[in-house]
Specification:
The chain contains seven helices and no strands. The chain starts with a helix and ends in a 5-residue tail after the last helix. The chain has a single domain, classed as Ferritin. Helix 4 packs antiparallel against helix 7, helix 5 runs antiparallel to helix 6 and helix 6 packs antiparallel against helix 7. It is 80% helix and 0% strand. It is elongated and about 60 Å long. With 188 residues, the protein is an all-alpha fold. Bound molecules: fe (ii) ion (2 copies).
Length: 188
Amino acid sequence: MAKAKTATRSKKRPSSAGAAEGNTQLMKFFTDALKDIYWAEKNLTKALPKLMKAATTEELKAAIKTHIEQTKVQVQRLEEVFGLLGKKAQAKKCDAMEGLIKEGESVVEDTEDGSMTRDVAIIVASQKVEHYEIATYGSLVQLSVTLGLQDAADILAETLQEEKDTDEILTGIAEGNINWAAEQEEEA
Ligand SMILES: [Fe+2]
Ligand SMILES: [Fe+2]
């Protein structure tokens, strides 16, 4: 039975029919990874507003605000992907993102309100989050293709691009002015 399936499997499959049929180990892994990032995104919609409030410059506040709106849509996209799998969206605690969110909270506590160093710290913490997301969505897009879930791959690729764009925007803000201004700051 398994042999017959393998024989018909080609590297590129045109539709999502293939993966939806079965409960392969890879399919289970993929679904678990979706639950993990679903938890992460939902928690980021709560964590990012705190970072936005804590930020010093309007430039950084605006960038985080844009990404909060994107993150809300990313949550919906994941719900769409669960739907494509015929599953209800379910969140499973992501230990890595919990740690990264905690780190974001602690850098705010450890830096002075209204300082440029605060913004540097928020950018560094945020970029760690973005890089985690880039790694996750990059993998999920590839796994979707492998599983023959092209529609899911397309949806997840949209989010991947937003995470990459956000990372670049944060780099631009840091290098534009904030890192230099923080370097001029007196010790608290
Ligand atoms: Fe995200
Ligand atoms: Fe993000």
